[in-house]
Structure formats: C-alpha cells, structure tokens
Amino acid sequence: MFAYVRGKLEEIEDEFLVVETAGIGYEIYCANPYQFQESLGQEVKVYTYQYVREDLHMLYGFKKEEEKSLFKKLIQVSGIGPKSASAIIGQAPVRDFAQAIEQEDEKFLTKFPGVGKKTARQMILDLKGKVTEWLTYHGDSKTTETIHMIHATSPYVDEAIEALRALGYSNREIKSIEGKLKAENLESTDDVVKKGLQLLIR
C-alpha cells in the first residue's frame, strides 16, 4: 500500500490528479482534484489509499491525513463504496461529519449523494464512538469530558438554531455563534435561544 505520493503535480482532471515521481506518473482519484490547483506544476504531497478488488485497482488521494483515515472507516460500512466515501469527504469537513455521526444527525448524512436513511443509520451504528478524535479542531485542548458535554447539549442547540431561523436570523449570523452555543452547558432550548439572542445583538 502507498501511504502517500510526493512528486510534481503534472495534471488535474475532473476526477483525478497525475503526480509524477521517479519517472512514474500516478493517477490519483479525488472527490475534488481542483483543491490542488495552486500546486499545479509544483511538488505536492497527496495522502493515498490503494483500493483493490478483483476487477479494480484504484489509487484514491486526499489532501489531509484525517480525510484518508475517515475514508478507510467509511468503506467498512455496508452500502458505502470507495466512490461514495470519497464524495462524502469531498463535500464536508471531517469534523462536521464526525459531529453528525455522534449526534445521530440523519438529516445531515442523507444530503450526500447515494445516502438514504437506511445507509445513514448504518453509518451511525458502525461509526458512532469511532470518530470522536476529529470533533475538535487541530490544536484544541478540549478534554473528552468537554466533548461529551457538548454532545449532551446539542439537541437543545439544534432546536434553538431552528428557532433563531424562524425569528429571521440568517444562516451566516447563526453560524458565527453556533460554536459558542455548543460550548455552553445550558439545560433547555429556551436558555440556548436566550443566549443566542444575546450573542447576536452584540
């Protein structure tokens, strides 16, 4: 297996990159190859996973190591193949996906192509508790206890966000305070709404 490929980024196509190293051009499939656009013609490091089946050998590529790790977990889920797993990673940050799994947010998961309610439920069953390492940003020193506290308040936060939308606040405004709301240890939807209003009118 190839852990990563480092070399000159020679070509970007709609579905794959071509990275040349030691005189060999590696065709590496990505959900969004154009995220590497700024490195065209330069040396690039692409984390890779070699998917092998009887009739198929493909090299999938990722910009971040955590994306590759999530890909490996996703393809172990019944109903999720490498193409679907790559598409999921290309459309959502790893942290957001992990949060959806831990909060059992089927609505978020069914937004991905080819993911229905049955597959979303299967992902939750198979991955819950296995993706908590990605729930905090890099360099964040939150403890596991704090992470669980955030999970405990999340149903109130979700309901409060819907209430704030109903009051006319935009998604951009709500997004700017969402992290602060989730960090609060509030015990009801009303309390979260009140706190949200305080933050929004500042």
Automatic annotation (TrEMBL):
One of its GO terms (molecular function) is ATP binding. Residues 72-91, 107-126 form the Helix-hairpin-helix DNA-binding motif class domain. The keyword Plastid does not apply. Residues 153-202 are annotated as: Domain III. It holds the Pfam family RuvA_N. The keyword Magnesium does not apply. One of its GO terms (cellular component) is Holliday junction resolvase complex. GO terms for biological process: DNA recombination; DNA repair. Keywords: Cytoplasm, DNA damage, DNA recombination, DNA repair, DNA-binding, Hydrolase. CDD domains: UBA_RuvA_C. It is found in: Cytoplasm. Gene3D superfamilies: 5' to 3' exonuclease, C-terminal subdomain, Nucleic acid-binding proteins. Has three domains with a flexible linker between the domains II and III and assumes an 'L' shape. Domain III is highly mobile and contacts RuvB. The RuvA-RuvB-RuvC complex processes Holliday junction (HJ) DNA during genetic recombination and DNA repair, while the RuvA-RuvB complex plays an important role in the rescue of blocked DNA replication forks via replication fork reversal (RFR). RuvA specifically binds to HJ cruciform DNA, conferring on it an open structure. The RuvB hexamer acts as an ATP-dependent pump, pulling dsDNA into and through the RuvAB complex. HJ branch migration allows RuvC to scan DNA until it finds its consensus sequence, where it cleaves and resolves the cruciform DNA. Belongs to the RuvA family. Homotetramer. Forms an RuvA(8)-RuvB(12)-Holliday junction (HJ) complex. HJ DNA is sandwiched between 2 RuvA tetramers; dsDNA enters through RuvA and exits via RuvB. An RuvB hexamer assembles on each DNA strand where it exits the tetramer. Each RuvB hexamer is contacted by two RuvA subunits (via domain III) on 2 adjacent RuvB subunits; this complex drives branch migration. In the full resolvosome a probable DNA-RuvA(4)-RuvB(12)-RuvC(2) complex forms which resolves the HJ. This is Holliday junction branch migration complex subunit RuvA. It comes from Allobacillus salarius. The gene is ruvA.
